[in-house]
Design a protein that fits this description.
- 5% of the residues are buried.
- The chain is mainly α.
- It contains 3 helices and no strands.
- Helix 1 runs antiparallel to helix 3.
């Protein structure tokens, strides 16, 4: 298996993009009106509140993973450079 530093960096960018899209996703508030007053509207509101909590938690987790992928990508490049210098007889 071969891993490239650019792949790790791209993973971080992709995770950040997904998080941004989720952050911008609506909560379905405009859809609640379709149910009218009553139990169905209340159940829908409850469902959407859960969706919002989970969506925002996922946004935070994706941001954290994106940051970690960026750090990992930089560490990967540094490690490759050090190994290359070591194998070439240079200083570490």
């Amino acid at each position: 298996m071969r891993i490239e530093a650019e792949w790790i960096a791209q993973l971080g960018v992709s995770l950040a993009d997904i998080g941004a899209q989720l952050a911008e996703a609506g909560d379905g508030d405009e859809d609640a009106a379709a149910f009218g007053p009553g139990d169905a509207a209340a159940a829908f509101d409850h469902l959407m509140a859960g969706w919002r909590r989970q969506r925002l938690a996922l946004v935070e987790q994706l941001a954290d993973l994106s940051d970690r992928a960026s750090v990992a990508g930089a560490a990967f490049v540094e490690t490759e450079e050090r190994v290359g210098r070591s194998l070439a007889g240079g200083s570490q």
